[in-house]
Write a structure and sequence with these properties.
mainly alpha; 284 residues; two-stranded antiparallel ribbon; 75% helix
């Protein structure tokens, strides 16, 4: 299983990096929208929609929301930032849901509520990733960094948990996750963010900017774990092991991007607040 996961991850990551670094922002937006659309289809399983027409209708609604997000990027950048900030605020409530599980599950077990949650999970993620790609101050290399950051966190947590894990992080949601794994993830990503800050010349090498970048990265890593746990929560509610089967060894698209749903909006907001993130004025 581990060998299959590694092979799938290497292939997927190679394709992602190639696309991010070589394709235009418009093409990257389309490619990412393709993955989000698959994720939306998988989310309909979390909603327990059985009717094929209803599932397709929901996916079409997600596509329309992505179109609205693209319009914000082009025409209403203030609304873009507001949407991303609202997504980050939503993750604070997600932390509460994780901490109180399995209490209060009735609050988010309703199909209509889950349909809204799906939109809030998927659409801001796409908007944040595309916005980062087109940013003149950051751009494609920082998008690759974000993807690598969550991957390093996952790897550090997995191997650290296997080696030292004793204290369960959220036993009712994800029995394999431990506090020792979280600590390993934070150590690994701290080192990675320091190295990346130097390579990417964050803030033209100014110490304050580098410290802010590392701090933002650590907060992003912490919330990426919550993103993972939230997907586990909804899978538990409907008794699913994986969101899908499209990725050998990894399950579905949602199983692969669960960390990113929390990480991407938070990363953009952090850069905006502390490191002068801005969108491209003209991307067409």
């Amino acid at each position: 299983m581990l060998k299959q996961r590694v092979i799938t991850a290497i292939i997927l990551f190679s394709l992602l990096v190639w696309g991010i670094l070589t394709l235009s922002s418009e093409m990257v937006a389309v490619a990412l929208a393709f993955f989000i659309t698959i994720g939306a289809w998988e989310w309909t399983r979390m909603m327990e929609l059985k009717n094929g027409i209803l599932r397709i209708t929901y996916v079409f609604c997600i596509i329309l929301c992505l179109g609205a997000g693209w319009w914000m990027l082009l025409q209403m950048q203030g609304l873009y930032y507001l949407t991303i900030i609202c997504a980050v605020i939503g993750w604070i409530f997600a932390l509460y849901a994780v901490k109180t599980y399995p209490k209060n599950t009735a609050l988010y077990s309703n199909k209509l509520v889950k349909s809204v949650i799906g939109i809030l999970l998927l659409v801001p993620t796409w908007m944040a990733l595309v916005g980062l790609h087109i940013s003149p101050t950051y751009g494609p290399y920082f998008l690759v960094y974000l993807i690598l950051l969550t991957s390093v966190a996952d790897t550090g947590a997995y191997f650290g948990g296997k080696r030292w894990g004793k204290n369960k992080l959220a036993p009712e949601l994800s029995p394999g996750k431990t506090w020792e794994g979280v600590g390993s993830a934070l150590v690994a990503t701290t080192l990675f963010s320091i190295l990346s800050a130097v390579i990417l010349d964050v803030g033209s090498g100014h110490l304050a900017a580098i410290i802010a970048f590392i701090f933002i990265s650590m907060i992003v890593v912490a919330f990426s774990i919550i993103g993972d746990l939230i997907e586990s929560l909804f899978k538990r509610l409907v008794k699913l092991k994986d969101s899908g089967t499209i990725l050998p060894g990894h399950g579905g698209i949602l199983d692969r991007i669960d960390s990113m749903t929390a990480a991407a909006p938070l990363f953009v907001v952090g850069l905006w607040l502390f490191l002068d993130f801005e969108l491209g004025a003209n991307i067409l």
